[in-house]
Each structure stands twice: as C-alpha cells, then as structure tokens.
Amino acid sequence: MAGTAPAFAAAIGGHPPDAPALVWRDTATGYGELWAAALRERDRVRALPLPAGAPIGLLVDKSPAGVALVLGALLSGRPALLPPASLPEAVLHELFASSGCACTMSPDAVAGVPGAGPPQVPAGTALMLTTSGSTGLPKVVPLPSAGIGAFTRWAGDRFGIGAGTAVLSYAPLSFDLSLLDVWTTLARGGTAVLVDPDDALHAGRLAAAIRRWRVEVVQAVPMVFGLLAGTGGAFDSVRHAIATGDALSPDGVAALPATFPSARLHNLYGCTETNDSLLHEIDPVRDAGGPVPIGTPLPGVAVRLIGDDGAEVTGAGSGELWVRTPFQSTGYLGAAAGTGRFTHCPGDPGGPVWYRSGDLVERRPDGALVLLGRTDFRVKVRGVGVDLGAVEAALSGHAEVLEAVVFAVPERVGGRRLRGLARRTPGSALTTLGLRRHCAAVLPRGAIPSDLLIVDTALPRNANGKLDRAAVAREHPPTQEGV
Fold this sequence. Notes:
alpha/beta; Rossmann fold; GMP Synthetase, Chain A, domain 3; nine-stranded mixed β-sheet; 26% helix; globular
C-alpha cells in the first residue's frame, strides 16, 4: 500500500466500481460513485484562491458526502483541519482562525474565516484532528501524511482488512478511530458501515446493522460492547472486537465471548497525538478479574515509564507512560505547543521527541502494562494523595453500578473533598449507604467520597462515547453542603 495519505486516497480509485465502499442508513455506495464524488471535491479544493500549502477547515457530518470531501482534501494535498462539527460556532471559529485556515468547506458551501492568522502547519501534514476539549479549547493535532500511511498499512495487516471486509464505523469522522474504521477500510477495498449518530445508543439498530452487513471488525468504546451484549444475541460474523478509549470492566470482559463467539478480542491503547500504541489480546479467563492490560508496543512503537523523580522505571513499578510511534503528530499547534507534552526524555536532550501521555501506568513483574489512572487525576484531599481514577474504578466495581465519575470539589472551609456520582442498574435499590459500605471495603478511608449521588439516567458522553466530565459537572453541580 502507498506510504502517504494522498497516495492511499488515490489507491481507492483502483477498487472495483461496483464494490460497496460505504453503507449509510442501510444504503450502499459503490467505489465508483464515491471516487467520482471525491474527484469533484478535490477539484473544489484545488480551485480555492489560497497559497500552496495553506490549510483549510472542513465542516462535515458522517455521511457519504462528508467522506468524499475529506478524500478530496487528501487527494489535493492541501492540509485540512477536521474538528467535530458539533462544537459551538465560536469554538470552531477560534480553532480555524488560530490554525491559519482562511476558509472552511462543507459539502454544500465555502466560507471565509475572519481574522485567520498566518498558516503554521508543519510541512507534510495531511489532516489535523482535535483533542476532546473537555477542559478548555481543544488542541489541534497535525498528523503527518507519512504517519497516516504507515498506520493504514499496520491496521490493514493486523486486522485482516481487505476487499469486501465490512468494518463498523461507530465514531465520528473527526475522531482518530476513523483512521482504522473508515480510511484503512477504504484503502484496502473494504466496506465502512457508517453508524448514524442518531443510532449510536440504540442497541437494536447497532445489532441489526452488524448482522445485515456481516460486519467483521468492530472497534468501539466499551460502552458499545455493553449495549451489544445487552441484546442477548451473538454476532458470529465478527472476527475482531477491539475495545478502546476507556477501561473494560470485569463484567464487560466476561460478556465478550458469548457476544462475539468467533472473534479475537483486543484491548487497544492510543490517543489522537500518537494514534494506536499498544495492543493486548484479551483472554477472557486470564483477564476476567481485571484490570485488563493495555498491551505491548506495536511494531516500531517505543514506550518508557518515567517516575515522579524523573528517572526511568526499568523493571516492575509505576510511572507516567511516555510513547513514541511511527504515526505520531509533530506537536500541537498554537499556544498548546508549549505544554511540554511533546518533549525529549530525561537525560537525552538531543534524542527523539516523545509524547508524555499523562497516563499513570504500572508495569507488573511479568512485563504487562496496566493503566492506573491519570497523572492529572492525582489530587490532595485533606492532605492525603488520592487517584480519582482508582476511586471511580472502586465505585464501578459494585455489581449494581453501571458507570461512575468522581470529582475533587472545593470545600467551604478550604481544601477539597471527593464527590462521586454513580448510575445504578435498572431496578436496583442501591442506596448511598450501601455504596459507601462497598467503598469502605475496597478503598482507604481518605479515598472514600464524602459526597455520593446515585442517579438512574445515563451520564453524559461525548460524540465518541467517552464520559464527558465537564457535562456531568454542569448537569449535577455540587452544593456548598454536599450532594
């Protein structure tokens, strides 16, 4: 397969015209039709009165027209910023302007971007994605053309994606999961089965799409696998079930074999900045007790654990995970470039650039890497260090809790207290007293939330299915007296 993003996009024109490239709302679009639409979009991009190499902004929803526009931008060789179209208009404008996008394109229109700054995109950039932006303005992540090409080669080979392979596309086009679900699939001549956002939480419709189109590869956050398991059916066409973006619960691991009886089961670790980095093949017996390891490095990927003292942890122990991949970004654009996330390893100032993930990871004696939480989730509560991720895992470990989130909130007299929210299973009579007793059995006293709230409705999630902590805080604000 070709080694750059424009080259792999061009390869799509070589697939049989009548072969199904996309499925959208139960209707298939052939490669011939998609390729013709992509060429029209390429010509629209080339006709823009912009200097060579100047970036553009793309405003696309998940649809064949949206896919064609992104392909057209890739074919043109012009860098394109692809943020979630659902972001507020003011946020989108700031992202486009600060990245030097003088205009935006949608399948139907072209518009100027008032106040756009000078282009600052690194040479060789194909696409620019954004981080989730749950705390402040999303960061712009430029992805090198060669890195995208390298990723599609690895993903296509690793998961056996070829002509006729149906792959479920659950995430929006603006998320990095689409590099596998959509772009790798199209590069290899497969069929990307696009999930309508309106169906994202509808288990029955998801199940029907997988069965009707004989989907072979499913990559999604664990919540989606929980929805499918809840239908009580088995999906025997699936060869690879890939959980990513969040931690798999013990119940989630236990449900996978019956839900996907013919599939190899995977836990995949990565982020927008580096793309996929680690992969673990799940053994439902071995991994049933959790937590599920995040895996071993992909070919060409290097990882290091850096302790609180700045020294590398070479054996068993814990530290922040640093990653270097063949697919990674060159660094954030704009003000975010100075955050120190892309940097040299301690003691090697002239060496390669690594990405500081912010994830706290433990290396077990057998070498397995296990995600403990976030370094920025480590807080002091009344003088005691607490990891919010560990507290969330403890709450979620209760048999009658479907999902949980924990915050450190200010106390009236100074300092901070822990506030936990838990969604209980339908029909459960779980009370805060019962949940507190559960916490007391698995957590140190200082890590037990002083405020607990039990809810019966789903906690807000972003477009990619991840828990939206900012939205939870807005919907369930704390009081001065507690929950």
